[in-house]
Write a structure and sequence with these properties.
CATH architecture of the largest domain: 3-Layer(aba) Sandwich
Order of helices and strands: EHEHEHEEHEHEEEHEHEHHEEH
CATH superfamily of the largest domain: Alpha/Beta hydrolase fold, catalytic domain
Strand order of the largest sheet: 2-1-3-4-5-6
Radius of gyration: 24 Å
Number of helices: 10
Distance between the termini: 40 Å
Strand content: 15-25%
CATH class of the largest domain: Alpha Beta
Number of domains: 2
Amino acid sequence: MKKIAVVFPGMGYTKDRPLLYYAGKMAKNSGYELVHIDFSGLEWSKDRLTDHAYLTKKLDECLRLTEEMLKETSISQDDEVLFVSKSIGTVVATAYAAKKSLNVRHICFSPLELIGSFIKEESGILFYGDDDPFAKFEVIEKIGAEKKLEMHRIEGGNHSLETGDILRDIDSLHGIMLRISDIISKRDIYHISVQGRDGSIKDLSEYRDKVLLIVNTATGCGFTPQYEALEGFYRTYKKDGFAVLDFPCNQFGRQAPGTASEIHNFCTAKYDISFEQFAKIDVNGKNETELFAYLKSKQGFHGFGDSPDADYMRKKLAKEVPGYEDTADIKWNFTKFLINRKGEVIARFEPTEHMDIIENAIKAEL
């Protein structure tokens, strides 16, 4: 089995432009054989990119070129294949994969609307701008929703996903490449396994398409009454695809000393919880779980906010853990991470955060 990444350029957007260059380099650094498709010999009419008949004609030309260029690569059904594409290249890449019945992961920059005719369900990610003159973002979003694709809209982004604001575009490019790095390395929350309360291994892919609130908890903490609010969130919104994942942790004040079974019995008896609890874990240090290492890498510490408990926590940690504010480590029990339906870690809430703010963030994602 080979690992092959094929880069499909856009009209005038060559392999050396930022989106394709960095994505291709990441793939190569991850062990993919990198192949570049070249459409430079074709003549293009920029004014006709929204003309369906014209696009169909150019697609046929591009497909013929692609088949010639990929003859010696001989991609098979068993290979691990990644197609990175831009603009008209997104149409060619998805059409070629469909024609050859290949199992491909797609990374599409500024996709054109014709991809909807070819791209398979759950086969990739779309990055698109809402100020793109060549593709209506509403149509792209509809295609993405229908095909269950991951979608990232760049506000103010043009056909090159740029806004004209250099610093903003650099930040945007950085964010795009971080997500692509996860995709290429297959590193996302759905590839992580955790240990259940009964010792069984559970894949977080079981929670795909749900909004998740992941919490490290303790039964003897001043924040323990937050269990009541967490259960309220779960009962109110579980019908909408929401779940709370509870990971007891004894690292903070040794406030979760019991066994997983004892902790669960306490929580059901006192707070009548019905959401899922897992085995006890470490969230910091040499024995930290993969899940919390990943969560912390996506959402660092941003402060304790302005609640009545915030000042207490700042003073406590300043004395006990000097420099605490400079790391992404979990600071205390009941730190919460919000995961959207795409599997993205979109927010981190410290235990001092107002619960109504957390609830509003949950509702915004449902």
